[in-house]
Amino acid sequence: MKKILITVGNEDAANIPQLLKGHFHLRENFGEKTRFSIVVPDDELDETVAKIKVTLGYMDKNTLVEVYSPDFTIYPLFDEKKEKEETPDAKKKKRNHSPIEKLLDTVKSYERLDADILSLAAVASIVGLVGLFLNNVGIIIGAMLIAPMIGPIYAFALHSATGNAMGVLRDILNIIFLILSFILFSLVVTWILGLFIPLEVTGEMLSRTHSSPIYAIMAIFLGFATIVALSKGIPDSIAGVAVAAALLPPALVSGLTVVLYPEGTLGALVLTLQNAIGLMAGSIMATIALQIQPRSYREKAAAKAILRRVAILLLILVLLLALIPLITVSG
Prior knowledge:
The protein is α+β, with helices and mostly antiparallel strands. The chain has 14 helices and 4 strands.
């Protein structure tokens, strides 16, 4: 349940009751202001707020709208109504993903690459390198679990869907920075270790030096599934494993092969880029399928323009990266 507070001038108060039909509400007078308190189900919040925004366009700008999540609510009438309306068909049609504000709140911590994220990336790189050197799949999976890759890609998808151009640019730079960090960290650590101990190319390394258009397609599906999972409230520590699996190991191999196996560097780098672009493309497709978008019509138009440009760019990159392995093989 959500609680919406609308504070308006008395002269505009007559415009609000038409929005309250079917919802539990209270009206309070405070001198020159009137406050309406509305209680709505979570799945009706988007529609209700959209109606409020349309109405606000014809009212005084000195109007305040607040949305809260009560810790606890008891409303027997709503529970009875919910039981009657929740037929099997209604349950199938019901949208279960979170409101757009809640989704955007979940990615705020990933908009900046702070010390915690970079430290986590460094630890994941070390664990991943140990797994690759020892040819141990279990250790590599452990590195995937802690790699902070899902956040920037999730933020990129949401900012693209909501038309936040600066946010999209920032997220792309964050993704590039993280991938380059994995590659450079792997290169430097491998070079230093090679001065003291003999290092061998393992099977886990070799398996990530070959790229194929199939990997790009699989990355698209992984990106799509990950965003759907996150929008349903599944923790990013679980949903993000697929993203880390697609990016962390090939990025580390791209760096270490510069020292140990130079002829495999190009393949590992192309595989890393294929997976990154594929994940981003899949995440964009998920936001479109889930109809994640701004509330106002003006914002929707701007978001569609940005989303269209991002989608075209990603499509071109996916096609180019898919062709590179074919050209390399034929050459």
